[in-house]
Amino acid sequence: MTPDQVATIGREAMLTLLWVSAPTMVVALVVGLAIALVQALTSIQEVTLTFVPKIILVFIVMLLTMPFVASEMQQLTEDLYSRIIRPEPSPVLGTGA
Q: Is 69 exposed, middle or buried (0-12, 13-18, 19+ CB in 10 A)?
């Protein structure tokens, strides 16, 4: 396996990670921002007010995006397995080594 192949696999894994975690992270960011704004406007500084709604909404988003996440992870895994089964030819040796 060449360094270029390793870099390609690493890049694909990182992009998949960003792609599947983006919906959850965006919801957590928006909810946190909205709650912080409400807390600043009302001077309510309750700690549980920030965590409970965020946890509930993040859990709901994770449940809703579970099929998407599973299909993306399955696609990445199948791609990696196909590279193990049929490696690309080595430019030096001319084989799959």
A: middle
